[in-house]
Amino acid sequence: MRIVIQRVSRARVDVVDEQGQPDPDFKPQSIGTGLLLLVAVQDGDGADQVDYAVRKLTRMRIFADKEGRMNRSILDCGGSILSISQFTLYADLRRGNRPSFMAAGEPQHAQNVWQDLNRALAATGVPVAEGRFGAHMRVDLVNDGPVTILLDTDRLMKKNSRSSGYLTMGRRGADTSS
Predict the structure, then answer these.
(1) Which residues are catalytic?
(2) Which of 32, 19, 22 has its CA nearest to residue 138?
(3) Is 57 in a helix, a strand, or coil?
(4) pTM
(5) Are 149 and 57 in contact (CB under 8 A)?
(6) What is the distance of C-alpha 38 from the center of its chain?
């Protein structure tokens, strides 16, 4: 799973048709202070990746404390999340000029995992708004900082064969328990 995380002071999404007109069946979603998530899923992603991502997203200290240091999590600051599915994060440009999206998950699987992620985030008490899976969306945001972080569970999560724990890559590539 790949997630682009943007700390925002506000974000909004709506769905449009082929002519760029708002879809009357979709109520635009918006948040104030919080995180905008652009989420891409691969076929191998599932509950382990969702659990890992939820832990990181809710505990990541990127909101300012009273001294102005990034020392508070979204749980600490009472922020919200706007989650947008975006398979294009798995674009491969190694050949030619047209991106290949072969690494992106099959649509039904990707939608299920994305929805599982959103439900798991909401279960932590963080308000979660969503775009519409597979739709043409317009996303409007004010990136606060700017702070933009890439969470890639393939790069960060390595199954420890001796236990049920996970290892993450720390500084200079050393494995450290998460």
Answers:
(1) 86-88
(2) 22
(3) helix
(4) 0.86
(5) no
(6) 5
Residue entry with tokens 């635009």: 28
Encode pLDDT of 46-72 as tens digits: 999 999 999 999 999 999 999 999 999
Peptide bond into 146 cis (omega under 30): yes
Over the stretch 16-36, which tens digit does the pLDDT of each residue have? 998 889 999 999 999 999 999
Number of neighbours of residue 166 by Cβ within 10 angstroms: 18
Tokens in use for 173? 């590539």
Residue 77 and residue 83: Cα distance in Å, rounded? Answer: 18
For the record, the structure tokens of 81 come out as: 């999340």
Asked if 45 contacts 113 with a C-beta cutoff of 8 angstroms, the reply is yes
Q: Which residue has the tokens 């048709």?
A: 17
Per-residue pLDDT, 177: 42
Cα(104)–Cα(43) distance, integer angstroms: 7
CA separation, residue 28 to residues 13, 15, 17, 43, 108 (Å): 6, 7, 14, 29, 23
Could you give the angle at the alpha carbon of 116 between the alpha carbons of 49 and 110, nearest 5°?
75
The DSSP symbol for 163 reads S
SS3 of 53, please? helix
**Is the pLDDT assigned to residue 138 strictly greater than 80?**
yes
Q: Which of 10-29 are b and which e, b meaning 16 or more Cβ less than 10 Å from the residue's Cβ?
A: bbbbbbeeeeeeeeeeeeeb
Angle, CA of 147, 39 and 166, to the nearest 5° = 85
